Here is the input.
Amino acid sequence: MSEDPELKQYTHRTGKTPDPRHLAIALHHANQIQAQKDAEVLILDRILELIELPSSPSADPASPAPTDVSTLKAALVPFQPTDFDNLILERNIEGRCGYALCPREHKKEDSNAKFRLMLGPKGSAGRGREMKIVAREKLEMWCSEQCAERALYLRVQLAEEPVWERRANEGAARQVTLLEEARKLKKATRSIKKAPDAIQPSGATLDSDLSALTLNDKEHTRATGSKQLALERGDTNSAFHENGRVDIRILEKDSSKGAKPVAPSPLPSDKTGGSIEGYIPKGTSDQIKSRKGKARDDDNDHDDVFDTI
Here is the structure.
């Protein structure tokens, strides 16, 4: 590795020449710090440039001028979400809406209240309006909810890593998209999908044909396996059909044919009652009552004897 001429020119105050590896590491970190400073200066210049947007005081944020759009997209390439927040703050200090393509002034709420109750659009299917509690500082960033939505849509597209840590070829990939452009693209995509004369590409047709062949192969393999299993079991008259299903027939029973059911004939032991399939349990309630009656009769007889004595 060839040594840097700047490293050769440097000498320590003691007169000793330092280690070139240490000098190379120090120079690498110094270049990183300088690149970070240059990026911060570039972002600050871009913020000052975006404060002056839009170019016309009567511009419509829903359909901005193409020059303003290109300027905004090019300026937001090195931005992080925190840099975008600084841009909103600087525009609010100037009395402008936080959205860079809006020429109107931002809202000015009552300073005594810290929060506001916001009512959203009326819901469909009988649902009521959505209510949100928003901090006053959040409301004062924008002129309307539409501009807040446009600005936040740009913010979520910004890269989290700082610009000095990105690769050199990531600049074109970091181009942001406006909310109106995204909505137009989505609408055009839906119209293409709903077109009646839309022709399915050949690749998709080939994929569908291959999937159909795969399903047919699975069904054939399943039927073959069922037949093989029946042969292994010794079932020559297999009930399986070619499609692998069992041949089952359900028939309704004809009640008009055959002998009519006859009630069972009573047994001699059933005349007394209290038997369970011919078995007469002992100690039934009737037997207990009869025993108690006999005991009472015996007591009465003893009383009669004592009275006679």
In short: The longest strand covers residues 115-119. Residues 5-106+141-192 form a domain with the Serine Threonine Protein Phosphatase 5, Tetratricopeptide repeat fold (CATH 1.25.40).
